[in-house]
Write a structure and sequence with these properties.
This protein is of the alpha/beta class. The protein has ten helices and twelve strands. The strands form three sheets. Strands 1, 5, 6, 7, 8, 9, 10 and 11 form an eight-stranded mixed β-sheet that branches. Strands 2-12 form a two-stranded antiparallel sheet. A two-stranded parallel sheet has the order 3-4. The two termini are about 20 Å apart. The structure holds iron/sulfur cluster (SF4).
Length: about 280
């Protein structure tokens, strides 16, 4: 039984060998990216705000929520860049979480309340695509507009605004569309109407963009995605984990956590499960 997620699918698209290292062998890096820690701390503060307003509670100090999560996330070895030092990220994060409430209010959206009375925030959903293939996802939020339309939104901390086409093509959003539809009775909804990203731009003066929404995926688009998932399952089953160099201008290797292992067999900085080490010989 294989369970796919948006991250696994995106990794498979990027490089099947990377997928092998990350998801079959379970190799992790000993150093965490500062961007990941930052995104997690921002997500926590924004979700806390959305939970409070959805439940009619007073909104806590969002800077404190951000800083608490940031300290938790950075309590390990972190990889910073020259332009994103810890001080700059903390300053940016505090500004960002203070801007989020106004931007959310401007969107006119409200968080969907599920039949159990809880707001649809950080929702884990799963679905069976076949007897042997599952799909799982962790959705940031499901919202409603004044017309009662059901809208799936993913919050993104990003360096630059997402292009207009991305929401139409994103496999992450397609997987969420399928997951929400598969769980619509549990969620108390009839159908998904719209999908999109809400980008929180990492600038010295952060910018919170309004959600960029597109219509829900068509049945044809969902069917194509399912077909892609079955192809990935076949690659898993048949051990097809080929490297992907692509062209020089879009080569994924420079940004790959496993590049030293993949290129030179060097495992420094990697945490490899003991029982998987023998399998590296056949990678
Ligand atoms: S170094 Fe390149 S080919 Fe090797 S796993 Fe990473 S992305 Fe794939």
């Amino acid at each position: 039984m294989l369970t796919l997620s948006a991250n696994k699918i995106i990794t498979a698209d990027t490089c099947k060998r990377m997928m092998y290292y990350r998801y079959i062998l379970g190799i992790k890096t000993s150093v965490k990216s500062a961007n990941l820690a930052f995104g997690s701390a921002i997500d926590t503060a924004c979700t806390t705000y959305l939970y409070a307003i959805s439940m009619g509670l007073s909104v806590p100090n969002l800077e404190d929520i951000f800083l608490g999560k940031w300290e938790e996330e950075t309590d390990c070895e972190i990889e910073y860049t020259v332009t994103k030092t810890p001080e700059k990220l903390v300053d940016m994060g505090k500004k960002m979480v203070n801007l989020f409430p106004q931007a959310w209010e401007k969107s006119g959206l409200m968080i969907l309340v599920m039949p159990d009375g809880g707001p649809a925030l950080q929702v884990k959903l799963s679905a069976q695509l076949s007897d042997t293939l599952g799909l799982v996802g962790y959705l940031d939020l499901i919202a409603m507009n004044d017309d009662g339309e059901i809208i799936i939104i993913d919050l993104k901390t990003a360096a630059a605004s997402y292009g207009d086409l991305f929401a139409w093509q994103s496999d992450q959003l397609t997987s969420y569309n399928i997951l929400v539809e598969a769980n619509r009775h549990t969620l108390g909804i009839d159908a998904v109407n719209k999908l999109g990203f809400m980008c929180l731009l990492k600038k010295v003066k952060p910018v919170i963009e309004q959600p960029k929404l597109v219509r829900a995926r068509s049945s044809q688009e969902n069917a194509e995605f399912r077909s892609k998932c079955f192809d990935i399952e076949r690659d898993f089953q048949q051990g097809r984990f080929h490297k992907a160099s692509r062209h020089a201008f879009n080569n994924p290797c420079d940004l790959c956590n496993f590049k030293q292992l993949c290129t030179f067999g060097d495992t420094e900085g990697l945490i490899i499960p003991e029982d998987k080490k023998p399998l590296l010989q056949v990678a």
